[in-house]
Design a protein that fits this description.
Elements: E1 3-8, E2 11-16, H1 21-26, E3 51-54, E4 61-62, E5 73-75, H2 79-94, H3 110-117, E6 141-143, H4 153-161, E7 167-170, E8 177-180, H5 196-200, E9 206-208, H6 212-219, E10 225-230, H7 234-237, H8 251-261, E11 265-268, H9 269-290, E12 296-297, H10 302-311, H11 325-340, E13 348-354, H12 358-362, E14 369-370, E15 373-374, E16 378-381, H13 382-391, H14 413-416, H15 423-437, E17 455-462, E18 465-473, H16 475-486, E19 494-498, H17 522-537, H18 548-558, H19 564-570
Parallel strand pairs: 1-5, 10-11, 10-13, 12-19, 13-16, 18-19
Antiparallel strand pairs: 1-2, 3-4, 3-5, 6-9, 7-8, 14-15, 17-18
Helix pairs in contact: 9-11, 9-15
Length: 583
């Protein structure tokens, strides 16, 4: 690549000719302020905060959208530039609510941080401010257009990463607003509830639907037996909010914190992941024998399931009928566990800690009701759990480790790796291999399906039988595989699709990235994934169907994989869903 000589703030350097001014400045340690820019999304150039002066131009240049050229002389911190940036932020603030102290993003807001660093100490511009009604009817995602700064990050992530294209700017000028098509409510649109709009939003224009109040209420109700379960990826990410290095597993401290919060029983969603693998492997082996409804599509990601129901309903017969691991633990808690402790299921309040805001939508689906009773009563994101721990005054970093409770708290390494992309596939292959061959694996790791890249296709040899598999995370990648299936370009046997980039470790409910990282950051995802792989390596049992607690549940309650009672408790069904007004 050709290099050109430029000067930034009187410092000479050589940079590849297609480098943006912003990236060139970063090479010499200059961080130009920005709001609409995101390193993994297309360039918008709308906020103008990243402006610089370039010799020969009589106007300011947006550094995120302009490439350098030979001989360019750039000033990033002149008096005029600093004043102009401050004026831009002041104008944005003039059209922004004055509720920082009560805002969800207080202390973790990019607009707030920029106002501080650029020296905004008072509001100099006062005028008419946009007014929009809070759109909080959604099961998962709350939209507050008054806090929107029109950066279009949400629009871009929805279109470019998820391929849903649910959001767009409507109207013009002062009346511009970001909404679903025709101003629909989120649940009436093609929104799949993934929450990636929440992750990339620099303010609080998008946040998750809070369930903390109902959880506090349940914990303070002496008539309720309150159970909590935690998804695998929670333990790989929650420590970031408490000063731990990225990629530090915090399983034991997490359990201790939950005990201090007052939960009566603490179960592991990884147990449900093991159960899912046992049931799903049985399903896969049956389909391989009959050659029906192949490929088998995994079904543990609710955002992906919603996407399938809205965009690929013709593939519903291919989806596994297994409930998500969360759904399995919840269902067993209100049936098997309730009988063991002689509790009326109606007196059990089931809380799930998930990396995923789409789980809030999942628990409201009629398919997730058994005997006229919701199997999960509340879902907290990792962010919500971390807030509760801080609110309760718990010093998380100093906690000792504790273990999950029986009988739904024991898991294998196969269950733990569900939290990262490729983990479901690897766990399924471990069990499928042993079920098909009747032999124990000497090396249980299928590293060829591990990656934080968006798409993997592999051919796996199981005792001479070739199994074609695909793993996709982020739904634009999922779409590539699904189109191949529909066009019959390739015969797959098993496909894992996770709605969120990186899988659950990059879920819409995970902690906002610590300093030095950003949302959609593959380095961040890789470190969180490694935390799960390290947990897997240290487990006594690493293959799901060898989990002693799973075997006991089958012996005492479910009989065998695929039994009638297993189908009632552990399986579900899906159907085509269309946004309002579409038939």
């Amino acid at each position: 690549m050709k290099k050109v000589k430029i000067k930034i703030d009187d410092k000479e350097l050589e940079v590849e000719e297609n480098t943006t001014i912003m990236k060139a400045a970063e090479k010499i340690g200059i961080n130009i302020p920005r709001l609409c820019y995101h390193p993994d999304l297309s360039v918008e150039g709308s906020c103008r905060v990243c402006i610089v002066q370039v010799k020969g131009f009589d106007y300011f240049i947006t550094s995120c959208a302009h490439n350098i050229s030979e001989g360019m002389e750039i000033l990033t911190n002149s008096v005029e530039i600093r004043k102009a940036r401050r004026d831009i932020i002041e104008l944005i603030l003039d059209n922004h609510p004055k509720d920082c102290q009560t805002c969800e993003r207080d202390g973790n807001c990019e607009l707030q941080n920029l106002a501080y660093t650029l020296g905004v100490r008072e509001r100099l511009f006062e005028g008419k401010r946009k007014r929009h009604k809070l759109e909080d009817s959604s099961a998962s995602v709350v939209r507050n257009a008054e806090k929107c700064i029109l950066c279009k990050r949400c629009v871009r992530v929805c279109a470019e990463v998820q391929g849903v294209c649910n959001l767009e700017q409507h109207y013009r000028g002062f009346n511009t607003v970001v909404t679903p098509f025709d101003g629909s409510k989120m649940d009436d649109s093609v929104c799949i509830q993934c929450g990636q709009c929440i992750n990339v939003c620099p303010t609080a224009a998008f946040v998750e639907k809070r369930h903390t109040d109902k959880v506090w209420e349940a914990l303070n109700d002496p008539t309720k037996h309150v159970i909590v379960q935690t998804a695998p990826s929670i333990r790989a990410a929650m420590g970031e909010d408490f000063g731990f290095e990225v990629g530090t597993p915090c399983t034991g401290k997490m359990v201790t914190a939950l005990k201090k919060l007052g939960f009566d029983a603490i179960f592991d969603t990884s147990f449900g992941a093991d159960m899912t693998i046992v049931e799903e492997a049985n399903e896969l082996i049956h389909r391989l024998k009959t050659n029906e409804n192949l490929p088998l599509l995994t079904s543990c990601s609710p955002g992906w399931i919603s996407y399938m129901e809205k965009f690929y309903p013709e593939l519903i017969p291919n989806a596994s009928t297994c409930r998500s691991p969360m759904g399995m633990v919840s269902a067993l808690s209100k049936t098997y566990y309730a009988k063991k402790i002689n509790k009326d299921p109606k007196d059990i309040f089931m809380v799930s800690i998930m990396p995923c805001v789409a789980k809030k939508f999942e628990i409201q689906r009629p398919e997730h009701i058994i005997d006229n009773m919701p199997i999960t009563d509340a879902v907290l994101t990792t962010r919500e759990l971390n807030w509760m721990i801080k609110s309760y005054g718990i010093d998380f970093k100093s906690l000792e480790d504790s273990d999950f409770d029986d009988p739904l708290g024991e898991s294998t390494g196969g269950g733990d790796i569900f939290g990262t992309t490729g983990g479901v596939m690897e766990a399924a292959l471990r069990t499928a291999y042993e079920e098909i061959t009747g032999k124990s694996l000497e090396n249980v790791e299928f590293k060829e399906v591990r990656a934080v890249e968006g798409l993997i296709e592999r051919e796996i040899d199981i005792n001479g039988k070739k199994i074609n598999i695909a793993v996709a995370n982020g739904l634009t990648n999922g779409k590539k595989i699904l189109e191949k299936v529909l066009k019959k370009e390739k015969q797959y046997h098993l496909i894992e699709i996770m709605a969120c980039p990186g899988g659950c470790i990059g879920g819409g409910g995970q902690p906002y990235p610590p300093k030095g990282y950003h949302t959609l950051d593959k380095t961040l995802f890789a470190k969180r994934a490694q935390a799960l792989y390290s947990i897997d390596q240290n487990k006594k049992f690493r293959v799901s169907h060898k989990n002693p607690s799973i075997l006991k549940v089958y012996e005492e309650f479910l009989k065998y994989p695929g039994s009638d009672i297993a189908h009632k408790i552990l399986h579900t069904h899906y159907h085509a869903r269309y946004p309002r007004g579409v038939n």
